[in-house]
């Protein structure tokens, strides 16, 4: 399995190999159920098939959050290691893609926590008022904005965070999210509405944080 993950092709990670995307929901669930059963029985070729099917989507999600190619590659390998050992507990009532995406997103935020991303640095950067704008300033601002979004998402409950990332960062439609989560389209819309509301509340709380608290972090 280690060799298999190490040999994951970068181009495949970027473009994705996703044959089940054209399947109906029922046939997709059957495909995934059989795939999981084969992997649980010790079929390494079945796990290779899983990696090939989902590596593009997993890498895309991770890269959009971390914005670093090497970090994304390393994190994707960690995700598939975790998927392999966690499949014994997989609930077949869920879509495999949704379950793997949740693992990937959680691993991204674990990675960010390990890097100890702190808002103090971004806030100090944004407070600097340059005389002349420069490309470097623009790049710094973009990085700060992205890190701010990641920090806000980290304060949103896990399921809501997954839904927001898949909708706002990956661009999935309501119908696609409905298939992935097994919820109705109206339920997905309601969950997204509530998730966005929580994100706004997190932003408001962050903006009200005392300066002395920021400096101490």
Supply the CATH superfamily name of the largest domain: RNA polymerase sigma factor, region 2, helix turn helix motif
* CATH topology label of the largest domain: Rna Polymerase Sigma Factor, Chain: A
Give the DSSP E fraction (strand runs of 2 or more residues): under 5%
- Point out poorly predicted stretches: 10-21, 117-121, 128-134, 211-217
Number of domains: 2
CATH class of the largest domain: Mainly Alpha
Helix/sheet category: mainly alpha
- In CATH, the architecture of the largest domain is Orthogonal Bundle
Helix content: over 70%
Could you describe the 3D structure shown?
With 217 residues, the protein is mainly α. The protein has two domains: 1-116, Orthogonal Bundle (Rna Polymerase Sigma Factor, Chain: A); 118-217, Winged helix-like DNA-binding domain superfamily/Winged helix DNA-binding domain (Arc Repressor Mutant, subunit A), CATH 1.10.10. 76% of the residues lie in helices and 0% in strands. The longest helix has 23 residues, at 44-66. It starts with a helix and ends with a helix. Mean pLDDT is 77; it is low at 10-21, 117-121, 128-134 and 211-217.
List keywords for this structure.
single chain, about 0% strand, about 220 residues, mainly alpha, Rna Polymerase Sigma Factor, Chain: A, Arc Repressor Mutant, subunit A, globular, 12 helices
């Amino acid at each position: 399995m280690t060799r298999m993950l190490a040999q994951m092709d970068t181009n495949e990670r970027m473009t994705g190999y996703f044959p089940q995307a054209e399947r109906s929901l029922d046939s997709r669930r059957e495909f995934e159920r059989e795939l999981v059963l084969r992997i649980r029985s010790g079929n390494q070729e079945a796990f290779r098939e899983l990696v090939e099917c989902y590596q593009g989507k997993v890498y895309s999600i991770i890269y959009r959050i971390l914005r670093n190619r090497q970090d994304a590659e390393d994190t994707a390998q960690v995700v598939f290691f975790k998927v392999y050992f966690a499949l014994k507990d997989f609930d077949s009532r869920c879509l495999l893609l949704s379950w793997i995406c949740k693992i990937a997103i959680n691993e991204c935020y674990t990675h960010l926590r390990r890097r100890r991303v702190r808002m103090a640095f971004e806030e100090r950067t944004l407070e600097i008022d340059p005389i002349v704008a420069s490309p470097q300033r623009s790049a710094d601002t973009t990085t700060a904005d992205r890190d701010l979004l990641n920090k806000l998402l980290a304060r949103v409950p896990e399921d809501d965070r997954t839904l927001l990332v898949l909708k706002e960062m990956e661009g999935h439609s309501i119908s696609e999210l409905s298939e992935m989560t097994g919820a109705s389209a109206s339920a997905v819309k309601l969950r997204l509405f509530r998730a966005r509301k929580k994100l706004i509340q997190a932003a408001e709380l962050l903006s009200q944080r005392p300066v002395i608290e920021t400096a101490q972090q």
